[in-house]
Automatic annotation (TrEMBL):
Belongs to the FliL family. Controls the rotational direction of flagella during chemotaxis. Signal peptide: none annotated. The chain crosses the membrane at residues 18-39. It holds the Pfam family FliL. It is found in: Cell inner membrane; Cell membrane. One of its GO terms (biological process) is bacterial-type flagellum-dependent swarming motility. Its main location: membrane. This is Flagellar protein FliL. GO terms for cellular component: bacterial-type flagellum basal body; plasma membrane.
């Protein structure tokens, strides 16, 4: 009688292991099929822009020369090497402000241009920041306005020197006011 119980338990264990292996195989095959579908789906049909650009010969039109503004290419970030520290007047007393800045640029050419002109960018930022008021910098709207003024000034300075705006956004990564 003990042998019959052992045989029944062994057969049940084998069936559950086999079922588990089948379920795992089905899940893996389904996951592989889903990954293939998401990665390689979409045919070789031309995009709507390529269809519109076709010149009637069945060949797509040649790509236009890339504009040299700040909105072309992969977004890259250039950190200023040191925080910008400056004094601003306030209603009660003067305040000391420290801002860490990063610049968002598009493409490696703009990244190199921004790195080349870091002293010019730092000087421009310091000039814009130090002309602000502590009472304005306490509010979120004041910080946004300061960031926009900084962007306009940096783009203007770089356009004069590098021939293009180079910087798409000025980002404050740290803002301390004492």
């Amino acid at each position: 009688m003990a042998e019959e119980e052992l045989q029944i338990e062994e057969e049940g264990g084998k069936k559950s292991k086999l079922m588990l292996i089948i379920i795992i195989a089905v899940v893996l095959i389904g996951g592989g099929a889903a990954a293939y579908f998401f990665l390689f789906a979409g045919g070789d049909e031309p995009t709507a822009a390529e269809q519109l650009a076709a010149d009637g010969t069945g060949q797509p039109a040649p790509a236009a020369a890339a504009p040299t503004n700040a909105s072309v290419g992969t977004a890259l970030y250039v950190a200023m090497p040191r925080p910008i520290v400056f004094n601003v007047p306030g209603s009660g007393r003067d305040r000391l402000v420290q801002i860490k800045v990063q610049l968002m640029v598009r493409g490696s050419d703009n990244e190199e241009a921004a790195k080349t002109h870091i002293p010019l960018i730092e000087g421009t930022l310091l000039q814009v920041f130090s002309s602000s008021n502590a009472d304005d910098l306490v509010t979120e709207a004041g910080k946004i306005e300061l960031r926009e003024n900084a962007l306009e000034s940096v783009q203007s300075a770089l356009k004069d020197i590098a021939g293009s705006e180079v910087v798409e956004r000025v980002l404050f990564t740290d803002f301390v006011m004492q």
